[in-house]
Specification:
Largest sheet: 7 strands, parallel
CATH class: Alpha Beta
Structural class: alpha/beta
Order of helices and strands: HEHEHEHEHHHEHEHHHHEEEHHHH
CATH architecture: Alpha-Beta Barrel
CATH topology: TIM Barrel
Number of domains: 1
Bound molecules: S-adenosylmethionine, iron/sulfur cluster
CATH superfamily: Aldolase class I
Helix content: 40-55%
């Protein structure tokens, strides 16, 4: 991250600090835009509603370009291309390239990587994208079952590894995104080890049926994650992290995940995610957050008018204090600016050190013959 970006983020979190403690109505403009290029998809994940209904009459290439120009003027400094599966749009790379040329400094892609062939990857890198989340929901059979397609794991992970091969050359930020749900909770430790083997940071995402892409009775069933299964999986990840914490979620992230399904809100942690991101859906709806629907459309109002409207400001004050239905979207970001979580992590690391020292002393005092 450049120094300018670091300052911008620090300023953003400083404003959130003021908003939380002193000025609840302080207007904090978003820095990042989440663009749902399409709500259609080439997979059929049990956790997702996208593929269950065809989405038609989505924004055209020119309409998205107009959106990108407005975002650059706002200014928005990072755009996340997502969906649905963004790469099924034939103009996806054109839009990524346009975003950079329009003046948006950083572009990110969320993808199932099925279409991230070497040729497509080269075009995406040439378009300036330097940050990627690739979804992997379990080892081979589990992933294929969840994603509704035989061979999906092999293809996705082959493309993920091709991407990792380019990481140093282009300075890429790549994360393996695992969405924890009932069908794969016991696979979490295996995925943690895979992430360590491939040296790719693991993002532990938590299933929800409350956000707009995922509202479906079949998804609701997947949110029924067993207490014991979750506790056991998280304990195993912690044990893996005790030996080597690299590439794994922070200790405080794991603690949050353990509480999530009992308390979707965890209100002591305000929602920074809802303040950071401006959501723009595939038909132009704009505003809201992951779980609260937008009230405007880019076809009717300029983005600046939306962001500065009294309605948007009121809604966002409400979402920040989690007067909302609750979801785990980017809980990790919400935790990162809480000093308490860093103290928690530090204490955990110190405890590890202490145990290690005790183990060494014990080995010296009681040598094995
Ligand atoms: C909706 S997908 C869009 C990008 C792309 N199609 C993909 O699968 O990576 C974005 C992320 O949402 C995750 N996801 C799927 N179902 C979810 C659910 N019910 N709750 C939370 N996240 C979910 C996916 O695993 C993926 O990592
Ligand atoms: S999670 Fe991604 S790949 Fe799976 S159906 Fe939803 S949009 Fe498609
Ligand atoms: S936690 Fe609440 S405010 Fe934040 S994204 Fe989820 S529903 Fe929206």
């Amino acid at each position: 991250m450049s120094i300018a970006d670091t300052f911008r983020l620090c300023g953003f979190f400083a404003r959130l600090w003021l908003k939380e403690r002193v000025l609840p109505d302080l207007h904090v403009r978003p820095l990042v835009a989440e663009l749902f290029l399409t709500e259609n998809c080439n997979l059929r994940c049990v956790s997702c509603a996208c593929w269950r209904h065809a989405s038609e009459d989505e924004l055209s290439t020119d309409e998205w370009k107009n959106v990108l120009c407005q975002l650059a003027r706002l200014p928005i400094y990072k755009v996340n291309f997502t969906g649905g599966e963004p790469l099924i749009r034939s103009d996806a790379v054109e839009l990524m390239e346009f975003a950079r040329k329009a003046g948006i400094r950083r572009t990110h892609l969320n993808t199932n990587a099925i279409l991230l062939t070497p040729a497509k990857l080269a075009a995406i890198l040439a378009a300036g994208v330097r940050s990627f989340n690739i979804s992997v929901d379990g080892p081979t059979a589990v992933h294929d079952e969840i994603r509704g397609r035989n061979g999906a794991f092999e293809r996705t992970t082959r493309h993920l590894r091709d991407l990792l091969d380019q990481r140093d050359r282009y300075g890429l930020k790549v994360r393996l995104s695992f969405t924890l749900m009932r069908s794969n909770v016991s696979s979490l430790p295996a995925i943690a080890k895979l992430a360590q083997r491939w040296h790719v940071p693991l993002y532990l995402n938590l299933i929800t049926d409350r956000t707009f892409l995922f509202r479906d009775p079949a998804v609701a069933e997947e949110t029924q994650v067993g207490h014991e299964a979750l506790a056991s999986a998280l304990k195993q990840v912690e044990e893996i992290a005790r030996k080597d914490p690299r590439w794994l979620p922070r200790y405080s992230d794991l603690q949050y995940a353990a509480r999530h399904f009992d308390d979707l809100l965890q209100c002591s942690v305000p929602c920074a995610e809802s303040q950071l991101k401006l959501m723009i859906h595939s038909h132009g709806e704009i505003g809201g957050c992951w779980a609260h629907l937008p009230a405007f459309n880019v076809k009717e109002l300029s983005i600046e008018q939306v962001v500065d409207s009294a309605h948007y400001r009121r809604e966002h004050a409400r979402l920040f204090r989690k007067d909302c239905v609750g979801c785990g979207s980017n809980y990790s970001l919400n935790l990162r600016w809480r000093a308490r979580t860093h103290v928690e992590d530090l204490l955990w690391h110190l405890q590890l050190r202490k145990l290690e020292v005790e183990r060494r002393i014990d080995a010296v005092q009681h040598p094995a013959f």
